[in-house]
Write a structure and sequence with these properties.
The structure is a homohexamer of 190-residue chains.
Chain A lengths: L2 E2 L2 E2 L12 E2 L14 E6 L13 E7 L4 E6 L5 E7 L2 E6 L11 E6 L4 E4 L4 E5 L7 E7 L7 E2 H6 L7 H8 L3 H9 L8
Antiparallel strand pairs in A: 1-2, 4-5, 5-12, 6-11, 6-13, 7-10, 7-12, 8-9, 8-11
Function (chains A, B, C, D, E, F): Produces developmental and stress-related release of hydrogen peroxide in the apoplast. May play an important role in several aspects of plant growth and defense mechanisms.
GO molecular function, one term (chains A, B, C, D, E, F): oxalate oxidase activity
Keywords (chains A, B, C, D, E, F): Apoplast, Cell wall, Cytoplasm, Disulfide bond, Manganese, Metal-binding, Oxidoreductase, Secreted
């Protein structure tokens, strides 16, 4: 079979609407994880017809006080709108230009608000409401945006990064790093 | 002021969260037009921080039996999910490869379903329910995707295209073209 | 065999000049179709060496009063020059920015004139001379630009688009749509 | 005024068909230069509407035994078709992969033949007919492809490249280089 | 003055070799910071002629036991070679595909070894030698790659990210976050 | 096996650090060729993990009075820094804009200086020191930049370019061309 971009490129004679479709993908609330969120991403793995087309879409569920923890998308900008509840969101700029390094830009979003997380920057969403869940729809400018949850990648990698390196990088004792590396770092992107 | 891509590139010292934010953009039902729809697009015109980032997002309202009529986006693929109601959607492939020309791929979408309209192809959404409105969220792979509503561009251009040309192209009498060109072609992208 | 972009990528040891060549491709007048034109496109299907190189070339023959009817190229800008005869050409802009929607920009071209049709916009060429044919050379900024003839895609798709949808979109009676859908929509890109 | 890509981006309200048009650009034979050719390129300098659109077109006139001497386009692939006469054309591949270095791929083209010169490779066209001129239309995959005539750039630069360097690079005596540098290297791209 | 991409595009008549040159940029050892490194990046800010050209180069100095701490480049892949000493380097993959999440790929590099850090992934270099400094040359696939030092962006942003959010994200007590946020997070990219 | 871009795309489960690594690649002086240089390029052929990542790195050795002769990279900009010795470097601009054609921009580089050779332009480096070798590190903005050594491609192609064509192009007698074509044109990119 012919592949483009690593994915099967179906014979045009056999392409049909199902190649551009995913049923019941984003309507249902989902169980949230330890940090209180669950990202349901529809990308080229779920819809083969997205291959080469540069976009994907996600539903994000947030438990009360839940968060989609600090993470980056190495290959996509994200645009998000709130469907239900309230979200406190933000991103941190890079180390340039001096002296304007690592600015934290944040906003409280209500239903219908739209916010943009530029490609590659560390960002998060947090549901500040202790009683009600929140729901957002997010779109990403890649068929396969990738996600790097900062804590998971730094402290939960397999194998672990040397605790000497991390202790110095994070200015803490090695046993703090060891403790962090011993935790369970649950993925919230399913 | 510095411009990138034709848009003002704000001094990094003065950038703030509002440059990546649009309040109350997509939560409210909107009055639909003559064909029974209303597209509320949040692109680089509404959120300056989208400049160079390659994505935008829209809410589409559909009246009962309303439609977002056949149109193309010259610079974007669209991915859509239904928030409320039901939509009959589809797109037509190009004239290649023979003999597989102009295939119409369609689907009935319910709440939570996701569908993809590849860049540049003619597509539409129609709300088949005679009693209830429908709502969708769509994302587009461009900060400024553009929209060409086929009927409006062909029969409602300013000035009008020669009726000689259109009569032959559409295999109808010139007075049919003249009648079509005399109609009011309302835009549903606001 | 290795494929790049879905096309065979020949072993460099075996590449030769024929991989970049097509004989007698664009010199001969060709029989025009029902709307009075015939597009002879030399793209990556005809010249394998064009793969990844982003360009193609075409000869277009126009019968007296013939036209290359309103169409778009979803992946290419077109630049055209007239070799013989006269052409009335034009394109319609998208629905942005208001109030400048759907402007029709047209020109009468004589031998040696050059005109540009920007990517994704609806455009056509018409030979206004009732006695003489016309010929043009066009180049397109893609190895596989695609073509969507508006009337064919809207009224001649397989299967047909619902006449309910089209009647409302084009502001005509359903039986007008049914009549249009019953016509033969001949392709002029061979 | 707003600029995109270094070129003025006209107010959409004021754009008209002339921004996409160049009259009488490619129909007339032109006087050829010392090497027997003349390239008439219509790019973004001549048609402002080409800005960002990635294509340009040229007419090339060849005197009997004239040539468009070995050159490269640093930003474009070229596709060429012969309108009149005969051309001997070719390009040389790069130094990879060994042992397949610097292969010369050539072809004699007659009217209507099409040939492709891949981006950045050294290529030429030569009219082998001692009595008749030749004419070609070429399209290039850039709004501003650039041209580097090898002999002119190497031996006719301003200021001159050190003759020590060139003598060793071309394995000739320094006085041969000096003689070459003393010649007049006429440009054939106007 | 004309700008392209936000940077001044000099009049071609006035361009000279200095626009493509930076003197004495990468030869001298530099004082390392608190984490024991110093990145000297030559990008479009230092060499204006790099504008639009998609590359930059850096020298990185490492003190004994110094590190270039975990960071990402949102817009560039990095390729690095060791000039002096030894480096323990690595990167962590993203959370896809399951169950292959967050793999840590590492290597000890000696003089002349080459290693690649793919775009957007968290990576670091560490000099394991307690007595000798190390030096590397790195190239990045962007004229302005950006750098996000993870610890600085997460714990040293201005203003600070809510400690509620970070405590949950990093599975630690809020006072640990408060302590981290009270530290001085020194930038090592100058 | 899955291929992307013509190269094997390894199963993510089996990827390891060696896929991003090349040992002892750039530390050792290498024997220089007839023109006195040797380019050791580490590209996607040497490090499979570079596939799609758009960068490569090279060490260049120069004998006393040796040169990396005039050449172009059809797919990459080059940024170079001197590690040892002195280099006289330069590039020639294209034939635009008139009257600013074929400007030669040159510089003498010492250890630690950085210089940029824009994509597709003819450039060289020369070691003016009759006694000492020189060494440089260069990075290129492509995983497979290609190299076209001008003299080799023009006079050493296989088969040879017609001496009629070259004699006219270079304004010399045919026997000069024949003599040049009879030389051995050694490649310095290994």
């Amino acid at each position: 079979s012919v592949r483009v971009n690593g994915f099967v490129c179906k014979n045009p004679m056999e392409v049909n609407a199902d190649d551009f479709f995913k049923a019941a993908a984003l309507d249902k609330p989902r169980v949230t994880n330890k940090v209180g969120s669950n990202v349901t991403l529809i990308n080229v793995m779920q819809i083969a017809g997205l291959n080469t087309l540069g976009i994907s879409i996600a539903r994000i569920d947030y438990a009360p006080l839940g968060q989609n923890p600090p993470h980056t998308h190495p290959r996509a900008t994200e645009i998000l709108t709130v469907l239900e509840g309230t979200l406190y969101v933000g991103f941190v700029t890079s180390n340039q230009p001096a002296p304007n390094r690592n600015k934290f830009l944040s906003k409280v979003l209500n239903k219908g608000d739209v916010f943009v997380f530029p490609v590659g920057l560390i960002h998060f969403q947090f549901n500040p409401n202790p009683h009600k869940p929140a729901v957002a729809i997010a779109a990403l400018s890649s068929q396969n945006p990738g996600a790097i949850t900062i804590a998971n990648a730094v402290f939960g990698s397999d194998p672990q990064i040397s605790d000497d390196v991390l202790a110095k990088a994070f200015q803490v004792e090695k046993n703090t790093i060891d403790w962090l590396q011993a935790q369970f770092w649950e993925n919230n992107h399913n």
